[in-house]
Amino acid sequence: MTTTSKKPRKQRNWLRDMPLHRRGSQFNAKLEKTLSEQYDVKRMPIRVNDHVRVTAGQFKELEGKVLGIDKKAYKITIEEITKEKSDGSLHYYPIHPSKVIITKLVDLDKRRQHIIERRKIAAREAEAERRLAAEAKAAQAAAGKKRGK
Q1: Cβ proximity of 128 and 48 under 8 Å
Q2: How far apart (Å, rounded) are the C-alpha atoms in residues 1 and 43?
Q3: Is 31 exposed, middle or buried (0-12, 13-18, 19+ CB in 10 A)?
Q4: Pairing of strands 90-92, 100-104
Q5: Same domain, 43 and 115
Q6: How many domains does the chain have?
Q7: For the chain, does the N or the C end have fewer beta carbons within 10 angstroms?
Q8: Same domain, yes or no, for 96 and 131?
Q9: One digit per residue, pLDDT tens: the chain, 149 residues?
Q10: Are residue 54 and residue 125 in the same domain, yes or no?
């Protein structure tokens, strides 16, 4: 489910008003290159206990285990990322899931296996469509050259 509007205001409202049971689709993150090649998938949903690396912001290049997912605020908490409060205590600093890369998938259960298989099939179909479109374009260009001469 995605918004069809290009307007930032409508996109923000769409995200804000999305029901909690549909917000899981917003917690996809890129896989590290080795994992991506291993599973033939570019992105996977983030889950608790997965290991991630932050790719942007003040905590860039820090790695840690995902401790929690806050679907209401669109944030995840990571084991190694903490900030000191004014009273000296530490609290976990929430990070947006688009700013991380998954470095280790901890739980490969049936649901994740199903996601991997589904995305592999979709990638193969998209590649076949691209190949057919390129062949059709090449054939059309060749036919155009023959008529022109």
Answers
A1: no
A2: 17
A3: buried
A4: unpaired
A5: no
A6: 2
A7: C
A8: no
A9: 677 899 999 999 998 999 988 888 888 999 999 999 998 889 999 999 999 999 999 999 999 999 999 999 999 999 989 999 999 999 999 999 999 999 999 888 899 999 999 988 998 899 999 999 999 999 888 887 766 55
A10: no
Tokens 């942007």 locate to 56
Nearest CA to 102 out of 89, 115, 85, 118 is that of 115
Which domain range does residue 134 map to?
Answer: 108-149
Residues 139 and 74 in one domain: no
Residues 79 and 23 both lie in one domain = yes
Q: Pairing mode, if any, of strands 100-104 and 28-31?
A: parallel
Are 115 and 97 in a shared domain?
no
Helix (H) / strand (E) element for 140: namely helix 110-148
User: Can you tell me the distance from the alpha carbon of 18 to that of 28, in angstroms, rounded to the nearest whole number?
Assistant: 16
**Chain center to CA of 64:** 18
